[in-house]
Amino acid sequence: QVHLVESGGGPVQAGGSLRLSCVVSEGTFSAYSMGWFRQAPGKDREFIAGINWRGDTTSYGDSVKGRFIITRDNAKNTVYLQMSSLKSEDTAIYYCARGRSFRAGVSVTASDYAYWGQGTRVTVSS
What we know:
Layout: E1 4-7, E2 10-13, E3 18-24, E4 34-39, E5 46-51, E6 58-60, E7 68-73, E8 78-83, E9 92-99, E10 113-116, E11 120-125
Parallel strand pairs: 2-11
Antiparallel strand pairs: 1-3, 3-8, 4-5, 4-9, 5-6, 7-8, 9-10, 9-11
């Protein structure tokens, strides 16, 4: 069983920063791509950032390019999302997800991720 646990969410003022973390319980973490998605009330789940299994390729949603950075530490089974210049529209529940396919590239599609965390809430106040 693969478990993902996010942390680091909370309230923050517009213009501020937060770093989200996601720890994956399963030992083959380093062989799978990882992604971050978010879902705001009344909206569809949105791809935010993804990183391949080696950590040398990343992809970002247009709404966060230049403000968010995804990284991973394979020794710690952890993926991070550094969020800067936060805006009120970044308010959402943020989910991390583990890729479905062994050593696959980064995907922006939710169905290409097999395991999901429970989410961590980020609230940006203006």
